[in-house]
From TrEMBL, chain A:
PANTHER family recorded: P450, PUTATIVE (EUROFUNG)-RELATED
Keyword Repeat recorded: no
Lineage start: Bacteria, Bacillati, Actinomycetota, Actinomycetes, Kitasatosporales
Record region (Disordered): 1-20
Name of this chain's protein: Cytochrome P450
Source domain of life: Bacteria
Family: Belongs to the cytochrome P450 family.
Pfam families reported in the protein's UniProt record: p450
Organism: Kitasatospora cathayae
CDD domains: Cyp158A-like
UniProtKB/TrEMBL annotation, chain B:
UniProt keyword annotation of Cell inner membrane present: no
Cofactor(s) the protein requires to work: [3Fe-4S] cluster
InterPro entries: 3Fe4S_ferredoxin, 4Fe4S_Fe-S-bd, Fe-S_cluster_ET
Name assigned to this protein: Ferredoxin
Organism ancestry: Bacteria, Bacillati, Actinomycetota, Actinomycetes, Kitasatosporales
Keyword vocabulary terms for this entry: 3Fe-4S, Electron transport, Iron, Iron-sulfur, Metal-binding, Transport
Length: 406, 85
């Protein structure tokens, strides 16, 4: 249990990995005991209703995971382990912090960005077409789109995308980097966050950072450390997961799921339905041995799915398994891609820590898939899926590059 | 017309399909909203039916629901007050 296994770092692995839409999931069942890589016992929760309960029940929280008596969770902690982050605060304090940003992320607030996001999508497709087939769709499309969107939202016009990728990869590293490398990257990233905050205080604009500073000033209880964590957290969360989801959606749709491409092009409603199904069925990551689910810790004894989990236990809510729970979903993308979801998906979590960016991510994916299918009806993967070059050793897994032709 | 608090009386409706159980509303407006056993929000007492006063906490809960699952309606006229359509 040390940090030496950084040899599985990004890009160095060679064994072919299954694409994300083909991963096997834990068969949902009652909560059962397993262990984290640190040796800490963890209760794995996998059924849809149980996962939902873990995420919404106030007797389980994130803050207790970082209490002084808490057991070690990660061999190499990353940005998710920052106790100052909104993710790791519960109750009223969390609510106050969340309120400073919530307004910008409601479905209506996000809908106002739609024409602008569509224009970014179209201009990336223009450039892709200009450069001609074959092309790397990750470099040309799935990576730059979410970066452009979050940069604009936060007013980070001069953010260098290489630096951003460096920080994000370290922020969500499991085995790709050493603890020291992660520490250095996170210190730099925090300094960047503090700089942006100072700039925006001196010269406020219409962007999200300015509006959250205004809300925080009004509230008065939010610390500088929390603000920095919030800003850099939004930068990472705002692009990394969307890039991952879009990349993996394309791996599916441009080969195994190619039959659906014409229908995706036909109308936005079809693209919206497909986005929901893809978000449900294609997980963001596969590092279940490092992170078997969304972690919580019980503050008192709690009965979940018929099992009494004692106070102080670490619980992992496996949203991937819950999203494939045969009691609730059929799981078959091929037949269900355009069907409404049978129950709420848990990809964005649930409860107080439900993903802030859920509506933004949905809109980006929907537009990205619909417009790409419309403009490039003949688009397909150039190489077999076994040849996909994956980003490895991170909490998320998506193609590092993906050659396409049309 | 039996609404209790005159012209200001409101009821709150929860779209239980949308609600993701964030609990934000029950924290900001405990007098108007509570979480059910299934983790989803539900209006309480007169806010479910009949109507009561629109408090700051309730206005805030409606505004900040992460999935816009809450809507305020006039207890008398039945028309929607917030969020705007
Ligand atoms: S704030 Fe919205 S999502 Fe959260 S519990 Fe209340 S109604 Fe449900």
């Amino acid at each position: 249990m040390s940090t030496e296994n950084s040899a599985t770092g990004a890009g160095t692995g060679t064994a072919p990995l299954p694409p994300m839409h083909c991963l096997r999931h834990l068969e949902p069942g009652p909560p059962r005991l397993a262990a984290l890589p640190t040796g800490t016992p963890v209760w794995l929760v996998s059924r849809h209703a149980d996962v939902r309960q873990v995420l919404t029940d106030p007797r389980l929280g994130r803050a207790p995971l970082y209490a002084p008596d808490a057991p070690p969770l990660m061999v190499t902690p990353n940005i998710l382990d920052d106790p100052q982050s909104m993710l790791n605060i519960d109750g009223t304090e969390h609510q106050r912090l969340r309120r400073t940003v919530q307004r910008a992320f409601t479905p209506r607030a996000i809908a106002r960005w739609k024409p602008w996001v569509a224009s970014v999508v179209e201009s990336l497709i223009d450039e892709l077409i200009d450069r001609g087939s074959p092309a790397d769709i990750v470099a040309a499309y799935s990576r730059p789109l979410p970066v452009a969107v979050i940069s604009r939202l936060m007013g980070l016009d001069n953010l260098d995308s290489k630096r951003l990728a460096h920080w994000s990869d370290h922020a969500l590293s499991t085995t790709a980097f050493s603890a020291e490398a992660i520490g250095t990257a996170m210190t730099e990233f925090a300094a960047f966050g503090a700089e942006v905050i100072a700039e925006r205080r001196a010269d406020p604009g219409e962007d999200l950072v300015s509006s959250l500073l205004a809300a925080a000033a009004e509230d008065g209880s939010i610390t500088e450390g929390q603000l920095v964590a919030l800003v850099i957290g939004l930068v990472v969360a705002g692009h990394e997961t969307t890039m991952t989801s879009l990349g993996n959606a394309l791996v599916y749709l441009l080969q195994d799921g190619r039959d659906a491409w014409q229908r995706l092009a036909s109308d936005e409603a079809s693209a919206a339905a497909a986005t929901e199904q893809i978000l449900r069925a294609v997980p963001l990551g596969d590092v279940t041995e490092h992170m078997p689910g969304l972690l919580r810790r019980t503050v008192e004894d709690v009965e979940i799915g018929g099992v009494v989990i004692p106070a102080g236990s670490v619980v992992a809510a496996d949203t991937g398994a819950a999203n494939q729970d045969p009691e609730v979903f059929t799981g078959d993308l091929r037949t269900e891609l355009f069907s409404p979801l049978a129950a709420p998906m848990l990809t964005f979590g649930a409860g107080p820590h439900h993903c802030l960016g859920a509506w933004l991510a949905r809109m980006e994916l929907e537009l990205a898939l619909h417009r790409l299918a419309r403009r490039l009806p003949a688009l397909r993967m150039a190489d077999p899926v076994e040849d996909v070059d994956w980003r490895r050793g991170l909490l998320t897994r998506s193609p590092d590059s993906l050659r396409v032709i049309w | 017309m039996t609404g209790s608090s005159g012209a200001e009386a409101v009821v709150v409706r929860v779209d239980r399909d949308r609600c993701i159980g964030s609990g934000m509303c029950a924290l900001s407006a405990p007098e108007s909203l509570a979480l059910d056993a299934d983790g989803r929000a539900r209006p309480v007492d007169r806010y479910a039916d009949g109507g009561a006063e629109l408090t700051d906490g309730l206005a805030e809960a409606v505004e900040y629901c992460p999935v816009e699952a809450l809507a305020l309606h006039s207890a008398h006229g039945g028309y929607r007050i917030a969020p705007a359509e």
